[in-house]
Request: fold
Amino acid sequence: MAIYLNILGYNVAVSSNDDTITTHLKMDFEHFLKNDNSKSIIDLTIDCQLLGEIPSAILPKNLKPLFQRQNSITYEKDGLRYNDYYGKVLSRFSAIKNEALILGIDRDKLYEVLYLFILSRSGKYLDLKGIHKIHAFSIAHKGKGLVCMQPMRGGKSTLFTEILSQFDVAIGSDDTPLINEFGLLAPFPLRVSLDTLPDRFKINDDQYYLMNREFYKSKYSISLKAFDKKIANNCIDFIFVEAHRSTYDEPFLVPMTKVRLLKRLFHHMVIGFGLPIIFEYFWESGPRDFLRKTLIFYKRFFSAVKLSLTKKGYDLYMSKDSKKNAQALMKLLNK
Reply:
């Protein structure tokens, strides 16, 4: 039985022989779940299998690596891309047929590849439609939105959760809200990822799991249902904030210049440092995909330029008191 996702028009069908993988997938993508999309056009089909041993015949012999990264070695032959995650997971993907086989002997690594694979392919689809992810969290209150950018390990999810615990806000995204080429902020509600389970919310056992990642610290993946908040509507009226850790006793905000806002958007949206994608599934070979990637870059860049000219941005220098940091952001949002 397949699980069907509809990610803003991008239809994904996933099958797996492992109940834990399907349970995690349903929790992480619960907002995009569809009961039955079997009659719809499927944009991506994935067969994800947990095995005791990966069959050696899946990866052809006598292949030269296309590129090698810390995470994987990538090969190509006859229109198929093979990614070897150093024996733990092996994937085979046809970008022409939009079909993938992902095999693994390590459940955590297998799910990590599956999760990021879905986000990589759907993200590329959205980019070409002029809908771009930004590495940030977003909330909305009384029709106005706030997009808070922070680097990885910057405390983004902690600040996001603090706001949810103190204020009646709608959830946009914990990690990757969407902004289209016309300047519209849209929600992208996936699970919330935290280092520890917050004790201010009543979180049931079936609303979270421990997400073990190979190159990053383990985190708890928590269902949005645990926070009992509405999903934000699309909005035109929103502001940008980039939050920074500091040693100040009180948080304070500094308005950004247009040039600084453009630089920060270039970092977090155009280049997209920290966005949850996998290079080997976003970056294809050949002149056709080179043109697509070039188009995506220009779409992102011109969106960033437009946003820097039409929206306000602020730097937030945070104190060690997360409650005060959340209050400073909400005071700004309510101006």
Summary: DSSP finds seven helices and 21 strands in the chain. The mean pLDDT is 92. The first strand starts at residue 3 and ends at 7. The radius of gyration is 20 Å.
